[in-house]
Amino acid sequence: MERIFDGAEWIWCNDSPRADEYGEFVDCFPYEAGRAVLRISADSNYAAYVNGELAAWGQYPDFPYDKVYDEVDISDVCRKGENRLAIVVWYYGISTSSTYYRGSAGLLYELAGEEGILCRSGGETLSRMSRAYLNHRMHIITGQLGLGYGYDASREDGWMTGELSDFRPSAAVEQELPLRLRPIDKLVLLPDVDGVECARIDDYTVVYDLGSEQVGFLCLKLDSPCAQDITIAYGEHMEDGRVRRIIGSRDFSVFYRAKEGRNVYRNPFRRLGCRYLEIRSEQPVTVEQLGIAPTMYVLSERERPGLDAFQEKVYDMCVETLHLCMHEHYEDCPWREQALYAMDSRNQMLCGYYAFGEYRFPRASLELMSKDRREDGLLSICYPIEMDFVIPSFSLHYITECREYLDYSGDREFLREIWPKLVSVAEAFTGRMEEGHSMEEGHSMEEGLVLPFAGRERYWNFYEWREGLDGYATDPSVPDVLLNSLLSLALQHLADIGEKLGMEEERAAEGERATEWERAAEG
Q1: Ramachandran angles phi, psi of 206, nearest 5°
Q2: 432 close to 450: Cβ distance less than 8 angstroms
Q3: Residue 136 near residue 89 (C-beta atoms within 8 A)
Q4: Under a CB-based contact definition with an 8 Å cutoff, are residues 193 and 273 in contact?
Q5: Is the dihedral of CA 67, 72, 74, 75 positive or negative?
Q6: According to CATH, what is the number of the domain 11-131?
Q7: 515 compared with 247, residue with greater pLDDT
């Protein structure tokens, strides 16, 4: 049996990495013919090039204690003879994003050919901090999405295919090997969607319309009369003829410093969700292309039911929305968060069962959520995330969506794997039911009701974006009918899961608890 990463080492471009830092790594390998497979894992994101051509990109979002690696066939971009492998790694290093759990900056890779390992990461791998990407800029787009990027084309030096400058042997990183292979397919880059000029504010500011919502990487081609700073804002709508870049503390923009003459750039890291792009320069530029290279998780659509013309239009829009919110995991929205929530993903899964009839993608999202670790037994607000923040009701939706996944997929093996997690989530609530509570002085409640979780800095008792349900006016000293109703449903779902899995003891205990709860609710 082949041993993966045998002899490969975790490395970084220096001994003291900082947040928002880009490392560049270069290696050479011989190639004759046949299959060449790149296995790679990074914290936090990577783009791998062979002879200057993008060959693999996009680290699966994971936890430092549950690393994931990719396995990509890159033989299509290899040529006979000597080849150059160039890898750029973006280390986020922040603890405030809803889409990232902070780990150690690092890169691990090996390239396997027909005759064995062609190259691998180690101390002899040459590396440096990036010249063109702006290190330590710490530009936050939104608190949920995290970091934006900046790129200085005037500092490009052609290292991917030409001479190397300032490269040194890499530093070793103490980190465990990845534990598992990416559980779903890699994303596919679709043909560029170019924006069409729709508003010219002045000679320095122009707005481009992509024609519809797109999610993917910024791509541009332009001529600049000089080296200058360019800001590109993006958004889903326009107001007063402009793209709204600044909304409260959010800044929906990326930075590009143009070099004099022709500029060609395509970002492989941060997906932008938008319909409009607004470019603002210091001096007028000639734009040949400003657009998005869409990224898609490719799925085949099931045969549709009989629909009339209007229903077909609605159905098309719904399927398109699903695609825009499915990448490495389900996302609540493509523009400002791109985050995996239990309640949001439940709705997406249900729609996906009918639209696509596939189960790998929902299973992967459920698995990622199950890897979350909290001392209180609840699930975090998003996944992966390092912040100590929770929407308690969403933990109950997780049990429900797992029950639904089992119903549609019949995947008992996976439910057995995560059964302990489901039980621990339920016990985070049932453990509080033994306490006696009082609503107000002189008015007592029976035991068996669960109070909202107290402590706004950790718990957000949210249900929906409506007054009274948004958690901002919740009294943690009063039992909440919605939380207790969701708990009732979750316990019933847990009992049903246990029955289908044949877990007699667990099923009996949780089934009895569900019955007790129903009696208490009726009383």
Answers
A1: -135, 140
A2: yes
A3: no
A4: no
A5: positive
A6: 2.60.120.260
A7: 247
Domain edges within the chain: 11-131, 188-296, 309-522
Report residue 52 as tokens. 């200057």
User: Which numeric CATH code is attached to 309-522?
Assistant: 1.50.10.10
Helix axes 504-522, 412-430, angle to 10 degrees: 40
β-pair partners for 219: 266, 291
Beta-carbon neighbour count of residue 40 at 10 Å? 26
421 CB-near residues (< 8 Å, 6+ apart): 370
What pTM does this model have? Answer: 0.93
Query: Taking all residues of the chain, what is their mean pLDDT, rounded to a whole number?
Result: 93
Rounded Cα–Cα distance for residues 470 and 250 (Å): 21
Segment holding 347, helix H or strand E = helix 342-355
**Tokens linked to 446:** 């029976």
CATH superfamily of the 188-296 domain: Galactose-binding domain-like (2.60.120.260)
Q: How far apart are CA 382 and CA 443, in angstroms?
A: 37
Residue with tokens 């399927």: 319
Six-digit token pair at 253? 């923009």
In 371-467, alpha helices (H): 392-409, 412-430
- pLDDT tens digit string along 432-478? 875 544 444 443 445 678 999 998 889 999 999 998 899 887 888 88
Q: At what angle do helices 412-430 and 481-501 cross, to 10 degrees?
A: 140
